[in-house]
Fold:
Amino acid sequence: MNANSLRGVLTVTLAYALVGASFTANSLLGAYPYAGGQAIRYGAACLLLLPLLGRGGAAPLRLLTARHWLRLAVLAAVGMVGFNLAVLAAERTAEPAVPGVLVGCAPVVVAVLVPLAAGRGPSRAVLYGALLVTAGAFTVQGWGRTEAAGIGWSLAALAGEVGFTVLAVPVLRILGPKLLTAAVCAVGAAEAALLGLLVDGAGFVRMPTGVEAGALVWQAVLATVVGFVLFYMGVQRIGVERATLFTGAIPVAAALSAALVAGAAFGLPQVAGSLLVGAGAALGTGLFTRTKTASAAAVQEHARDEGRVVVHGHVAAAGQPDEPRAGQDPLRADALAAKEQPVAGAPGDGDGHRGGEVVAEEHGPARRQGLVEAGRTAQRERLGDDRLG
Structure:
């Protein structure tokens, strides 16, 4: 794995770990109005991100079309406000492990759905890794009692988790991680406030207690500002399919934080499940292989942003040999590139074949053009000497 992909793996892992640890913070907000808490969380996150954008950092927003803004609205409604609402609703009729296990199936869904939408088959390594991650998440959390409504809301949470990742990719290319997070948080805060007004009226927000305030700060700063930005940075580097593999870090981090904060047990099932999650992520990302691991689905940033390097699937990773691809023979001449034009060669030049061609690039270096012109001049002088003779 090259350094660029390794950084992507680390950022995504940390992002999901922060989200998993935030489940413990969620348990401290049980008495706070749901919609109001979400509005405060996302609104505060947006305000915290604005100074980090720098002067003119919001300029790419002008490039967004109405379709892009609609995508952001759906992303916030489904992947942020809707996801958290679905998890809370699921836990009313099911034990917390049930939505946790179904959300843990997100890597499998993304590993199949994204390639099919792009007109290609799923990667076997990613798919097998996703299955291992899902098995690991199940082992960490187990399965609890549930009713049909609990399963339904858990499936809705799964859809929200998938939507949070997949819907963001086209806009991520334009805005980059920080601006995308700020924009979607602003939209999410507005949607949560509107939902609160419709459901709870003017009482959708109230002054939080000290414990609730601490939980809201954790949610806004670490789980949202840091977590979202790191996650989208990782998607840029390793692609959406491989990034979703690290969803398995959520139940692991949740179990660890519960053990540290609430004294919950972290026994053999949690250890075994954590190992399965790590093995699945390593398999799916090629962490310990020397093969090219950069995904063709990696996100290319907007042309104005030169602060990120994206390795595409057709470029050899650092430290790896550049091997010929299918249909290429290193001993044969390469086909002409798109911006190369055949230029008629002078008689007697080249390998002695009449009608030979010299390849000249459309905007090639002046030295190459000078060599071609020099050849033509020498040819005219030679022909003139022949006439005089």
Q: What stands out?
A: Confidence is low (pLDDT under 50) at residues 291-297, 300-369.
